[in-house]
Give the backbone structure.
Amino acid sequence: MTTGSVAAAATAAPALLKHQAVLALDSGHTSWIIVSTALVLLMTLPGLALFYGGMVRKKNVLATMAQSVAAAVVVSVLWIVAGYSLSFGLNGNEGLNRFIGSFDAVLLNGVTMQTAFGLAPQLPEFLWVAYQMTFAIITPALIAGAFAERLKFSAFLLFTALWTLLVYAPVCHWVWGGGFLGSMGVLDFAGGAVVHVNSGIAGLVCALVLGPRRGFPRDYMPPHNLAFTMIGASLLLVGWLGFNGGSAWTADALASVAVLNTIVAAMTGAVGWTIVEWFERKQPTLLGMISGIVAGLVAITPAAGFVDPKGALAIGFIGGIACFFGATALKKAFKYDDTLDAFGVHGVGGLVGAVLTAVFANQSINALAKDATVLKQVLGLVVVIGWSAVVTFLILMICKFTTGLRVDEEQEIEGLDATQHGETQHG
């Protein structure tokens, strides 16, 4: 090779950022993560939109669905602008990198057709950005279940923007992006702490700060359309295969066991929820079965790639029972109005699943299970709970003194569809 051609080759080689590797493309793995990205996006639109939309009253169904749409819009833009860089960038200061990423990849500067995220060199970095973006989208969308039927849309937009950058991005970096929780051995395969505990705790804080809906718990507030909710839950179940299976980052045996564990835990979650409901209420309900499926899905998320199917059976079953009480007895005891049980299912299920990850972790499934301990999991959860609770409260105070938080009493009575969006649902 001549001196000129060496210089030309050096010029063509990408200048890598600290978090990057040169792409070593594997088309099979890439194909699976492209599919997984579509599946996880499906979880929010239309999965969560239908799931939540069916459970609210008719006068609020469009406003509730609009929150899922808005979360996708706001988070997607912010993820490209700064969220990805803060979550997965590596800070040049090692001390700071324990807590937050960098601004090196703001607006995806430095992300090219030849780069990959360092821990997934077989995937194009553009695909990694897209896949992780779908996780960032659904997390604040889940929080909306806690304050459904009473939050201003303008407040939701501001809250989602600030929460994505100030809560989701740091926690994501701590666990998955090279931060201190991942370094200390906290296991979270697909988002038990990052997604579910994080959003569940934030939802609880929102419910407490906003206060109950007008008439809660005195008035009967039946779901508008449980058929919507069942369809939404089914889409969540299908999408979750990409959520958990895709978190192996490869199309291999680990992805396969994660997919199987996801299905198994979802079904035993329904078993656990339905058994308790049948004893307590004398009848099993459709809403109970699909809530149990979601509870099992939440509980298995941190463990999907660390346990065998026997562990998944147990985690789903325990998660279903725990979430039933989280959505009923716990809410009744402390008298808070978590409208669609964002904390009762995602918070409680995420906590249970994260702890049980260490209990059922199996080295024959994943070598990282070797060093799993309940203590590490609990310490990680305490950190995430504390950060999410405190910063969520501060963001709510910012919203309170800028956009305002709640709609007024007359608007709440009329419904958010008409008062926030000028639309109504007919038929």
User: Anything to note?
Assistant: Residues 5-11 have pLDDT under 50 and may be disordered. Residues 27-55 form the longest helix (29 residues). The chain has 17 helices and two strands. Strands lie at 20-22, 115-117.
